[in-house]
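Q: Could you fold this chain for me?
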Amino acid sequence: MQATPGVTLRRSFKFLLRPTARQAAALAACLEDHRTLYNAALEHRRTAYAKAGVSVRYGDQSADLKHIRADDPYGQARWSFSSQQATLRRLDRAFTAFFTRIRQGRRPGYPRFKGRGRFDTVEWPKDGDGCRWDSQPGHPTVTFLRLQGVGHVRVHRHRRVAGTVKTISVTREGTRWYVVLSCDEVPGHALPATGAVVGIDMGVASLLTTSDGEHLVNPGHLAASADRLAAAQRNLARKQRRSQRRRKAVARVAALHAHVRRQRLDGAHKTALALIRGYDVIVHEDLRIANLTRSASGTVERPGRKVAQKTGLNRSILDAGWGVFLTILSHKAESAGRELIAVNPAGTSRTCARCRHCAADNRVTQAEFRCTACGHAAHADVNAAENILRAGLALRRATEAA
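A: Sure. Below is the predicted structure, expressed as structure tokens.
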């Protein structure tokens, strides 16, 4: 993928909210009422189909909203009508995805009811309809977000918002509240050409290895916090359900996981930015992470082999955050006008970068590569990155010639 200089993009901006105690309670009530609406709409669809064989659509449930609001003036009627429509659309998308999976022969996964810990976002489809970004623009230093039923909430705006705000979402992460702005017409910032190209090989010991021979060590954020997480989860397991102490223990575990997630995101942004600044063309493996991290437990009839080892490998792959990194790299490349090429990784770790001989015996150890045909020796990941780069450049030439 490559962006044209001067192109405008769709981008999201996420900021921390700093609500007062009363506003935080109102935000929690708003989230709870939207969760109740989602679950009631799901029950409506289930019951209508089970009892009468009738499929209820989004339009039917949206038309019922005015009656629901009229019957609950101090509950559902407090919140924006548009945000409630967005919640019903969310359920409709869940059913659309469910039927799509059925048609494709995949595991369906019927939409389920949302518990208190599984519904953390409310969306307003249009700025100015039940919500207003920068609701007090005359204020010199502070930005406010106005939400119907909540008021003017202070925003910790750590960077400038570009483009036109289209949709606004408020999400809860542990004890923190965030606003996410989805903006259109965000200008890209093309970087000057460097004339350099690179191939990158993703790994576990090294997060990535470049065809130039550079290795980026995998920080292993989850592994580094494993002891504290284990202690917090053991403490949680001892707490009585529905107790105040259990809620505090849940918040502690969530805070630790959120800390790991922020560390992983920060590292991915910095690494991707360094690559974007240094290279015009970046070639990476087209990884299917869901397949790579599939469980090896098998079935009762056919139990899996080396299940514990595969479980540990899956955990390491997910801790490395390949998917997060590649997504961020894609967004930064598009904005900077860089070219990103994904290639099939099959055989890249067993093929000699010098003579193209492919054999399993070429890979002596996890880190050592020695070709059985020509004797070429190199670090296995560097050799793989060189093969990835060659495959990407070949794909690029074929695409340009077509």
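A (continued): The first helix runs from residue 21 to 52.
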